[in-house]
Structures are given as C-alpha cells and as structure tokens.
Amino acid sequence: MSKRRIQSGELMRRLIELSLANMRRILFANLTWPQEPVHFAEGLQNAQVGLSIRSFIMYRELFVVLSVVLLLTTVTRAGYDRVAYWDIDYPTHWISEDETIEVRDDVEAVGYSIVDADELKIWMEGHIADGELSVLVMCKDVFPVTVVESRDEKCTVRRYLDSGGKVVFFGDIPFWNIGNVDGSETRLYANGSRNILGFETSSAPRSSFNTVSFTVAGIEWGLSKKWQSMRPADPDVTNNLTVLATDDAGNAAAWVKHYLPGDTFRGFVRIWDHESVDKVSDIIRVAEKARSWTQPNHRYFSSS
Q1: Closest to 162 measured CA to CA, from 190, 124, 189
Q2: Burial tier of 183 (Cβ tally within 10 Å: 0-12, 13-18, 19+)
Q3: Residues 10-66: pLDDT tens digits?
Q4: Is the four-CA dihedral 62, 68, 72, 77 of positive or negative sign?
Q5: Domain count within the chain
Q6: In this structure, are residues 87 and 144 in contact, taking their beta carbons and an 8 Å threshold?
Q7: What is the spatial distance between Cα 72 and Cα 15, in angstroms, rounded to a whole number?
Q8: Which residues contact 243 (CB under 8 A, 6 or more apart)?
Q9: b/e per residue, 251-261, with b = 16+ CB within 10 A?
C-alpha cells in the first residue's frame, strides 16, 4: 500500500494521543492562578468568579475531548481490519465515479485503508490464511478481475467470504459485471452471483421503485436512510439470509448472506439496490456491525 495510507489502528492511536494531549493542555491552562497581588476579600471574590467561569470552560472542553475519545473507541472496538476498494483504472457501473470518490474519502477519513485491485487480492489472501476479523467496503459496484479469477466458488472473493470475511456492496446487481484493468467490463449476467455467491441476487421482480421498509434486523444493523428498490432478491432464494429491508411485496431490497455456520454479522452485505449512494454513515454502521466487543476467530466456529 502507498505511504499516504495510514492503517486504521495507527490513525486511531494518533487521534487518541492528540485528544489526551489536548486534555492535559486544558487542565493546566485552567488551573493557573493570578500573578498580581490583590486584596484578600477582593481576591477571594474574583477567584470564585474566575474559577466558576474557568471550571465551566474546562469541563465543557473536557466533555468534547472525552466524547471524541469515546467515539473513536466505539468505532474501532469491533476489532475489524477495515479496507475500502477503489482503483482509478477499474470501472464502476451504476454508481457514478464522483460518488465512488465520495465514499472512498469518507471512509478513509474514519480510518479505512484504501486498496487498489492488486492490493485487494493480497489483503483477501492474507485473511483467507489468518481468519481474523476484517471488512471490505466496495466503493465501486463492480468487482475487479483480480479477485474474480475463475467466476465460481473457487475465486478469491468467495474463498474470502467462506473464511469469515465481510463485504459491503451497493449499486448494481453483484457480479453482473466484472471489471478489467483497461476499464472495460466482462458481463456475467445473473450467472455471476449464482456461480460466485451461490444464489441469484436479483431473483425477485425488478424496478418496483417502492420505498423500502426496514426490518427489525435492518434497524439493528444501522440502516437509517430509505431508498427506492430496483433489484431485490427473493427472501427465500437461499438459506442463512438476513433480510434488512423489503419492498412492498416483501422482497429483500437489502440483505446479508452468511457463509459461516451460526454466523450473524459477517458475509456478503447488500444494501441500496438502486443507482446512487444514500448515506455513507449507514455503510460504516453495517460494515462494523459485530456480535460482541471481542469476536472469536472463525476457525473456532462449529456447525453444531
């Protein structure tokens, strides 16, 4: 990865150190006493007023600093190795280039590392080997050929999912197209998701443009901004599918396909089955949805 990209853990460490440094500065700045001699009674009165004002300022500033520290701790507590895919040489389809840049910049600002197509393959291979908690946000709605080499369950992205990986995807039908390094697309149609994910992800009637309704699970996962559904899935098309949002007919406009036995928070996360980006904070919430503070390594899961 390029030197400009800071790993999420290092970024959070630096921000917390900065917050603590500001806390020390606030404390010392507000606990100084007047240097000029004053009459005792007048000095006492002035000191009381001064301390009240200083105390209010100090506690207000400390509250802000502590809130930042708490927010940073909350964001990183799930323990994910967080990356987002974006590569200038590879295509996007329904999601505009400007929107992909918006998502890229917003997730990078909260600590996600940006990886290109070649780096994405290396990152996935690493987590296939170690099984540690990780999550990928797809800024573009077309997977690069580097991780979809064989167009079936043996490709890198599917092996990553089978190893406990997590992918957040939005926009066009997953794997309808595969991106090439020259900017072109190879069209797989419905066979793409069927052969790679194991089911057809747009199996329900399309283009209803119904405003979606969130399920209980969708609210728990952090979805907040509704959209008009265009490419939903049949909610019964596969097992281990958590439905996050539905159209008027009950079809799954947002869902999570889990690939590990007993898993409830990882797998392939599909939101926003239409042509634009809605709310990046929703991406981050579903990406970092976790079962508990400390997650077990997937290798210790059993099918029982």
Answers
A1: 124
A2: exposed
A3: 444 444 455 545 544 544 444 443 444 444 445 545 545 454 555 545 555 554 444
A4: positive
A5: 2
A6: yes
A7: 8
A8: 215, 217, 218, 235, 252, 254, 255
A9: bbbbbbbbbbe
Q: Are residues 54 and 84 in the same domain?
A: no
CA pair distance 93, 231, nearest whole angstrom: 14
User: Range of 44's domain?
Assistant: 8-74
- The answer on 254 and 127 residing in a single domain is yes
The 3-state DSSP composition of the chain as helix, strand, coil percent (nearest 5) reads 40, 15, 45
Whole-structure pTM value:
0.73
CATH classification at residue 87: 3.40.50
Q: Which residues of 143-169 are buried (b: 16+ CB within 10 A; e: fewer)?
A: bbbbbbeebeeebbbbbbbebbbbbbb
Domain boundary among 16, 42, 74: 74
The pair of three-digit structure tokens given for residue 110, joined into one six-digit string: 């909260």
Cα(first)–Cα(last) distance of the chain, in Å?
40
Instruction: Express each pLDDT in 204-226 by its tens digit.
Output: 999 999 999 999 999 999 999 99
Domain presence at residue 3: no
